[in-house]
Design goal:
321 residues, mainly alpha, elongated, disordered C terminus, Protein translocase subunit SECA2, chloroplastic
Length: 321
């Protein structure tokens, strides 16, 4: 039994005034049940409209959740790789993080369509040194932006390079802790990834930018391996530290990302007043948030690892008589 004054009738704009007027003419008792084809038809129409309304809500929720589901799968797969992968896979993941951090710095401060003299080399150099702090500052303290520019001009137009031993001329040579077939395979793999990077701009000086990306990433990786080697810890402990740092950084930024996505899902509905599709706006901003989250995770992981091992080395030097 459904009351004619039920809020469902009002919510879906069903006219029940005719039935109320009819009842008032017949009797003053409002509790008398009404039966008839007209009433049944009204209720059936009401049910159809209600189902359409709630189906639209469920569909919208699923579409919004699909955006986050793609991101969730990526993060969970990455966590699974960190937790269950062998030591080599975790180490390669760290190398990829370092390469990505360097790529972001170089690509944001360079333009392959312009001569390196028009690049923001000073800012690029400062951001790179900031990643490793004192570790990289020891090598590049005397190097200026003009020195880097001179090196880039020197390598412009080179036809071939030794991938595993490449270094920019007149600049510090990367530490020699990354040697052997392992270095060659890793360097070659990363060089192929740099050359095949579709996200990078195309231009006359693209090869120069790629060589700079390779040099800085090789230097960062070699410096990290040198720190790990000088720490004197066994491989098991090193692997545990690397896993823990990677997981903590990922989990921290993933939690913050979920909060931001929840706020975004509530905020995008307002944009419909500007004749913009809330779902499309959610996808665009959600993708932008996710990319920023991954970028922050990589940078935090790299900086934390470098800081941890450098502090371990410094503490050992302090204790050693």
């Amino acid at each position: 039994m459904v009351s004619l004054q039920d809020e469902m009738f009002q919510k879906f704009n069903f006219d029940t005034e005719w039935a109320i007027k009819l009842i008032s003419k017949i009797t003053d008792n409002e509790d008398i049940p009404i039966e008839g084809r007209a009433v049944v038809k009204q209720l059936l129409d009401l049910q159809v409209n209600a189902e359409r309304y709630f189906f639209g809500i469920r569909k919208s929720l699923v579409e919004f959740d699909e955006v986050l589901e793609v991101q969730r799968k990526h993060v969970y797969n990455l966590r699974q790789l960190i937790l269950t992968g062998d030591s080599e896979s975790c180490r390669q993941q760290i190398f990829q993080y370092m390469q990505a951090v360097v790529d972001e710095i170089v690509l944001s401060n360079s333009d392959p369509n312009k001569h390196p003299s028009n690049w923001n080399l000073g800012k690029l150099f400062r951001e790179f040194i900031q990643i490793g702090g004192e570790i990289l500052n020891e090598y590049f303290a005397e190097i200026k932006a003009d020195d880097l520019l001179s090196s880039l001009e020197h390598v412009y137009g080179v036809n071939s390079i030794e991938v595993d031993t490449f270094s920019l001329p007149n600049l510090p040579v990367p530490p020699n802790d990354f040697t052997g077939i392992r270095k060659k395979v890793s360097s070659l793999r990363r060089w192929f990834a740099i050359c095949a990077d579709d996200a990078a701009k195309k231009g006359r000086y693209q090869v120069t930018a790629n060589l700079l990306r390779k040099y800085l990433s090789d230097f960062l990786i070699a410096s990290y391996l040198e720190l790990v080697h000088e720490s004197g810890f066994d491989d098991t402990y090193i692997q545990e530290v690397e896993r823990e740092v990677m997981l903590k950084s990922l989990d921290r930024f993933w939690r913050d990302h979920l909060i931001n996505m929840n706020r975004l899902s509530s905020a995008v509905n307002v944009r419909s007043f500007g004749h913009r599709n809330p779902l499309e706006e959610y996808k665009i901003d959600g993708c932008r948030f996710f990319i920023s989250m991954l970028s922050a995770t990589r940078r935090q992981t790299v900086e934390s690892l470098l800081q941890y091992w450098s502090s371990s080395v410094e503490s050992e030097e302090f204790v050693t008589p």
